[in-house]
Amino acid sequence: MNREILFTIEGADFDAWTKLAREATPNLTLIPDLPADGTKPAEHPGIHYCLAWRPRKGLYARVPDLKVIFALGAGIERLLADPELPPHVPLVKMAEPGLTEAMIHYVLWQTLNHHRRFWELEMAQRALRWVEQDYPAPWNRKVGILGLGALGEATAAALRDFGFQMRGWSRSPKAIPGVACFGGLDRLAEFLDGLEILICLLPLTPETIGILNADMFRGLAPGAALINAARGGHLNESDLLPALESGQLSAATLDVTSVEPLPREHPFWRHPRIFITPHNAAETAPATGLLEIARQIARFEAGQPLEHLVDRARGY
Ligand code: NDP
Ligand code: OXD
Fold it and tell me: For an engineered disulfide with 124, which of 49, 105, 131, 312 has Cβ 3.0 to 4.6 Å away?
């Protein structure tokens, strides 16, 4: 099998990707969508697969034989919102070991930051203060993850292995050894009750927009910490500063914000207990991402169902 994939990723180094594709698998050839000389975009008859991230005007009309769209990342809300997205072409979200591992590392880093209040030690150093700190054992720390998909489940398992007392919430019920799982809206309050660190790894859909809000914060343990590594739209941003001021939340880590890059004048930048990272919690690793696409194409061509297929009605 040798398959051509239309490469439509803006800002990516096409030659570097091509080299990685060659190293990762001999079975894929990347085809650039836009001519390097800036001339009129080409038509791509006979190409069945494309790798996409941000919507590109007029793209799909130029790929008349398209059979599957592979998203470069896991969060596909922008691709879904594209009015030109062909309704009958399957859209597959990315789930691959490099992306998952990076997310585990990010969430572990920040979970430890909040669990041990390492951020307080950094502040103490800046103020030349020698402080004493107490902290519970990880198995006495209640940590919960909203979203138990490709990323949430692996992250919950990793934090469990670090000893944390783990809970997870998803739309449908799940069973993950050593993680208390709660399925559906009716079990949300039970999931939240007494949580000390809340992590968001949900997709952004009409049902999850603004889910991180004052109501949710009130359901947590007083002084809980928030880690949002999903999408800025999950957080009702006007609820965050009051929650930090009242002590309902002790601190928050935001990898994502409603406007990115976060404008320089935004108060979140300067808040001593808000930790901002520039939407870099996890990225698809090109080599393993391409291998995953090759695997999915092999399944598809053998008549097996695609995995991580986006359900357009649900929005993820
Ligand atoms: P998946 O689609 O695999 O999993 C989504 C999870 O969320 C599933 O467990 C699903 O439940 C649950 N869910 C969806 N809607 C609801 C709802 N209304 N109520 C309860 N649970 C719900 O996604 P991934 O794990 O691959 O990725 C999650 C998100 O992480 C992405 O959509 C993206 O926004 C974000 N992300 C952020 C990155 C960053 O760098 N900051 C990098 C990569 C991803 P069920 O299992 O029942 O379907
Ligand atoms: C993703 C992302 O969704 O990088 O994969 O944000």
Answer: 131
Q: Tell me, what's the pLDDT at 23?
A: 86
**Residue 303 CB neighbours (<10 A):** 6
| Residue whose entry in the numeric block shows the structure tokens 């391409």 | 290
| Ligand 1 midpoint to CA 39 (Å) | 39
The CA distances from residue 177 to 54, 141, 159, 281, in Å, are 37, 18, 12, 25
- At residue 41, the pLDDT reads 86
Q: Indicate whether residue 149 lines ligand 1 (CB < 6 A).
A: yes
Percent with pLDDT over 90 in the chain: 94
DSSP H helical ranges for the chain: 14-24, 77-80, 97-115, 118-126, 150-161, 188-192, 214-218, 240-246, 267-270, 286-301
Instruction: Decide if 214 contacts 240 (C-beta within 8 A).
Output: no
Distinct helix (H) and strand (E) counts, the chain: 10, 12
Closest approach atom of ligand 2 to CA 94: 5
The question of whether 62 is a catalytic residue gets the answer: no
